[in-house]
Amino acid sequence: MYTYLMMTSGPKVGVSVLLRETFEPIRIGRQGDCQLQLEDPLCSRHHAEIWFQDGHWYLRDLSRNGTFVNGLRITEQVLSDGDTVRMGQIEFSFHESDQPPTTVERLELGGPPPVESPPEDEQTLQASLSGLSAAALDYKELNRLAARILQGIGHEVPDWEPLALEFMRSRLGAARAAWFEVDENFQLIPRKLDPPRQPRPELSASLKYLLLSEGRAVWTSHQSPTDARRAAQRSHGTSDALWAPLALHGEIVGVLYAALEIGQFRQSHFDLILALAVMASEALRLEVESLAAAATQRANIALAAWPDQLPGTSPAMERLRSVLADATHKPVVALRGEPGCELPVAVKLLHASRRASGAPLLVVSADALNPAAADESSSPVKPNAPTRQAPALTPSLAQQAQQQVARPRGAGVEANTLLFSRRLWRLLRRGRGSGAVVWLTNLQKLSPAAQKRLLQVLHLAERSPASVPIEQTPLAPPEAASAITTPPRFWLAVSVDSADQLPLLPELAAALAPHWIEVPSLRERTADLEPWLECCLTALREELGQPQLFVTPAARATLLAQSWPGNVAQLQAVLKAAALRSEGDAVDVPHLDPSSSPTEGLYDTLQWSTWEHRLIDAALHQSGGNIAEAARLLGIGRATLYRKLEAKDSPALDDDQ
């Protein structure tokens, strides 16, 4: 039997001190003659003493500040396995176990000196070696699990939660294992359960506060060490349970749960589930970062070209700022505006509420969801699967669906594209637990099959019918309530840059109806035109390295007189092209369009592709044909510039340029 004190709060958290049976009390305090010295100014020189007598361990208080066992001040107390002991600001947990602790302080308290200690009998030695070999095997299996999961991130659709649950069942001997996600109301939402049907777990409000607010693992016991049969008669049916938090970007987004129906966990099991939680948190982070990197390579919107704030003081702009501020507390936001309006700035404002915690922003075109949705919809239906009435399709959607059915499964879909689509759906289903903010652009490009799946995601985000309320009591005592901050709920934004009627399923259109936020066009708020002109000019000075760049009064008057049907994006494009054409720091009327007079032909076309081609030509002219420099001037990647050159049938350029 091993008896030890494990520090749970203090300078050496996780370190255990072995106690040996002795008739002399073991003194604890700050004084140098104490066998266990505590580095805490709130502890007395001789704070407490502990000794073994008549088969029990006793603890006596010697201090003025007091010694506390399980939160109650004591004078003298018999210790039981699992008791919490606090002296000053340092806390210990008292354990009696047949397994040795995993991290042990060199000093062993009590008993004769180690050189004179009698040798352990063969049975005790074999038990110790057996425990150590079992722990080594546990961590060896954990290392294999980590390698299997981490190596597959980015190369396959991860589905490693069942592997983590199976690990807890096999290595911890858990009768029940679960993976919970934490919503914004501090409720646990079951995502994976093994076995699938389990009674509701129980956790007190104070322990829930430690788990979800402070991010500390919790070990709960519902029985005494000598009574292992009563647990089976309790409503929850567990005798011992371990709760380990999963942290991502400074937030607790999930919990690993393992429980026994009869018996107790060991200290080695507690350490093992902590290591598993660290591995799972790292896997979550790497999975999101890998997907964010893949989304960045595919993105067709240069967020860096847009400011972080909305310029302008018009009434329409003030209303938009107010609506966006309210939207940061919602799980779903839908943005709608004309092509070229400030949708990217609106999303950046929404993301700012979580950017400080490191949550990435994924900008993804909605058509990236179509391959996986089509692949799933074309798979054979299981014979015993229940059938239900499909949503009614509009004529245009019905035609799209027929075209998809006629297309061979997987035809024209690259493996990487299909993999990216499947990983993206997995992230959307996880919701806030992904630790990411997702912006789906071009919602009108969603296929009917993808719209059905997105509708399920929206329902999951709006309400959590499977959430597990844990003791509907305040999350923490009143004195701790001020320390709780509810994280922002926003994690999904959808947008459409079209004023036309969207080809959406009626059910999806109804689900999005309460969330739409209209971004007004620039012509509706002419008072914001000059602030936007100054904002674009400031960005160009930094981007082009021309701090003295300015617009002449004549050119400014010409720009302010336009209606800008292409909105802010058109203004940015025209001003950037003019700056690239100018020889010096002055942008004048001829630079706005050299083929026209000052008042004619400035907007000979409103086709966005034409303006894009003009910008590319201007950047190539400015850089002397150097692709890397032209891409830098345009604010895009070199690979993106090559794709755009191929799309406009430009003459092939040398890769060395």
Q: Residue ranges: pLDDT <50 for 5 or more in a row? A: 110-120, 122-129, 223-235, 380-394, 400-412, 464-489, 594-602, 650-657
Largest sheet: 6 strands, antiparallel
Number of strands: 23
Give the terminus-to-terminus CA distance.
Answer: 74 Å
How large, in whole angstroms, is the Cα Rg? 32 Å
The DSSP helix count reads 19
Helix/strand/pairing class, anyone?
Answer: alpha/beta
Task: Note the beta-strand portion.
Answer: 15-25%
Q: So what's the overall shape?
A: elongated
Strand order of the largest sheet: 2-1-11-10-7-8
- Determine the mean pLDDT: 75
Helix content: 25-40%
Report what the structure shows.
The chain has 657 residues and is an alpha/beta fold. The protein contains 19 helices and 23 strands. Strands 2-1-11-10-7-8 form a 6-stranded antiparallel beta sheet, with no helix packed on it. A hairpin with a 2-residue loop joins β5 and β6. The longest helix has 32 residues.
Present the secondary structure layout.
Layout: E1 2-9, E2 16-18, E3 26-29, E4 36-37, E5 48-53, E6 56-61, E7 67-69, E8 72-74, E9 76-79, E10 84-87, E11 90-97, H1 122-152, H2 161-171, E12 176-182, E13 188-194, H3 205-212, E14 218-221, E15 240-248, E16 251-260, H4 267-298, H5 315-327, E17 332-336, H6 343-355, E18 361-365, H7 370-377, H8 395-406, H9 415-430, E19 437-441, H10 448-462, H11 478-481, E20 492-496, H12 506-512, E21 516-518, H13 529-544, E22 550-551, H14 553-560, H15 567-581, E23 586-587, H16 589-592, H17 608-623, H18 627-634, H19 638-647
